[in-house]
Amino acid sequence: MAGVLRQYNGDSLYLAAFAVSLVLLGYRDVKRNQGKNGKKALTAVLFAIIFIFNEFAYRIVGKLTDATTYYRFFWMLPVLFVTAYVVTQAVTSGMMSDAASGAVSGKAKKGQAVLAAAALVLCLAAGANFFFLNRANFNRPKNIYGLDPEVLTVADEIMADWDNEKEQPVAAFNMYLQYQVRTYEPRIVWAISRKAYLYQAKNGYDYKKYVRQQHMIAAVNEGIQNDSKALRRSLEKNGVDYLVIQTEFDMDSYLAQISVVPAAQSEHYTVYRVEESGG
Known about the structure:
The protein is α/β, with parallel strands linked by helices. It has helices at residues 2-7, 13-33, 36-51, 55-64, 67-70, 72-101, 106-128, 149-161, 175-184, 194-203, 211-222, 228-237, 252-256; strands at residues 170-172, 189-190, 242-246, 260-265, 269-274. Helix 9 (175-184) links the parallel strand 1 (170-172) and strand 2 (189-190).
């Protein structure tokens, strides 16, 4: 159970906030309703542990769908909604009780508003990694998801080189770059499917399935330089416009044979443009 949660950042503050929220719900229920709703909540948590938060459920879901991508939603939904409910209820109930009793002065209310605003600014700043506001203007942070800066460079270089506004560029990345680039720049289309990566990781380069994509995986993941013509056919069949490969693989001369040329470079990666055959 712990391993499944940690796989999807279950050891983050979200899970701690969820646990605190459950405790507060139980305490409030015992205080107001003699624990009637608390028993229901406890039952729900036990069912969640049995049917969701465990390795067995993960494996069952994995047989039916892409568990490694979508399983997180099974536990994220209750975690986020319960936490949001408890925090919202705490704030609104406090305001309502203050208004009903009239015990809070205008000065105290103003102080609460200032604290709430400060907390909001702090959350925005922490969530975005740095403040929205700078000396020049009010702006949205460029790297809001805290991605590897090199990912931003690679994606920006591809979009800067791309000159076809009617279509989207298709690029092949290694597994590390693939998800991060799409998070930052969704206009870039994956050339290699996630299922092809998983199949190759399990079976190696057997070329029995996802044959066309396995040639690209060999190039971008490991810098393998075997059959350049097969790689060229793979690029053409998948409509690939760019390859992004670690510079240390030294693929320039190999790729030049099939009209794939360097277009840009980051600290550790080279962005190659796939030109028309014979161009």
